[in-house]
Amino acid sequence: MDILKEKQKIVINNPDSFKIKDILECGQVFRYNIFSDYADVVTKDHYAQIVDYGKKIIINCDDSEYFYDYFDLDTDYQAIKQQIKVNPYMSSAIEFGQGIRILKADLFEMIISFIISANNNIGRIKKTLDFISKHLGKDMGGYNAFPEIDVLAQADEKFFLSAGCGYRSPYLVHTLNILKNSHLLFFEQLKNSGTVQAFEKLMTLKGVGEKVADCVLLFGLHRTDVFPVDTWIFKVYKDNFNGELTSRKNIREFFINLFGNLSGYAQQYLFYFKRSSKA
DNA sequence: TCCCAGGACAGCA
DNA sequence: TGCTGTCATGGG
Questions:
Q1: Is A71 left (phi over 0), alpha (psi -120 to 50) or beta?
Q2: Using 50, 70 and 90 to split pLDDT, how confident is the model at A242?
Q3: A232 pLDDT more than 60
Q4: Which nucleotides of strand C come closer than 7 angstroms to any CB of the protein?
Q5: Distance (Å, whole) CA A115 – CA A100
Q6: Residue-level pLDDT at A278
Q7: Separation between Cα atoms, residue A100 and residue A270, nearest integer Å
Q8: What is the pTM of this model?
Q9: Through-space separation of residue A164 CA and nucleotide C8 C1' in angstroms
Q10: Residue A80 and residue A101: Cα distance in Å, rounded?
Q11: Chain B bases under 7 Å from protein CB?
Q12: Of A81, A211, A238, A278, which is the active-site residue?
């Protein structure tokens, strides 16, 4: 595909691995809307509107450099698909989610979003994050930014309960208290660590277990050598890979052995296919 | 009414 | 280390 970049506009001609519905609905980010004639997405304090004309996609946004990176437009997804097409089921999953791209989302936003995601469903996660942003995020004129750490750290458990965070509320308060004073160093260390070390470091935060840590690594740090195992991946493993493993840890290891550094990509195709088609 | 959702955590063996 | 019950909440 051919990409043109202006100051506040990106034009993609003949897109081969870019479908905004696939990108937004595969469960990696939650602050978006899909309408009949366009879609929009808010990330951190940025906004983009995406129109799909078939052979041409136009992204109108506040900063095209930011969204060029956000949509991972330098990566060749056709090549990745060829490498992870290890069996007929993978081929079907890739065909189904052919427009998926792994977004480069904001690290802090991903930590909070995926703590809220635990034992939750995407509809409720979207509502909760919209509530939080609407109440504590900066008014950007037409939309609200995701709240800054300092602002969100001032919110109490009662606020998160009213936002619909449920039993995850004390986890959020605890984690925000840790991050409000240490986030610069904490995030720097995450970025400079190997994946295993970053995985362990993330799990020191309340509300962050193996699966949430993997999602933060994949979507917030673009580490593609991880494989988040959630309830849908358990089903994929059982139904479509005929596996006998039962623990999250072992299933994660099984898939990472299979897909290596492309595990994160493979996981997204599988998750999206299973959740959408139930095949 | 029961089951489920991008699970984490404490308690226990 | 690995297993089990519990947690808040809305939708199907």
A1: alpha
A2: confident
A3: yes
A4: 2-3, 7-11
A5: 23
A6: 55
A7: 11
A8: 0.98
A9: 8
A10: 11
A11: 4-9
A12: A211
Q: Report the C-alpha gap between A122 and A28 in whole angstroms.
A: 10
The answer for residues whose C-beta is within 8 angstroms of residue A101's C-beta and 6 or more apart is A17, A18, A23, A71, A72, A75, A77
- A118 nearest nt, CA–C1': B7
Residue A244 is encoded by which pair of tokens?
């006998």
Contact A117, A126 (CB under 8 A): no
Report which of A227, A229, A202 is spatially closest to residue A108, judged by C-alpha positions: A202
Q: What's the CA gap between A40 and A52, in Å, rounded?
A: 11
- Hey, how many other C-beta atoms are within 10 angstroms of the C-beta on A232? 19
**Tens digits of residue pLDDT in A159-206:** 999 999 999 999 999 999 999 999 999 999 999 999 999 999 999 999
Helix (H) or strand (E) holding A136: helix A122-136
CB A217 within 8 A of CB A223: yes
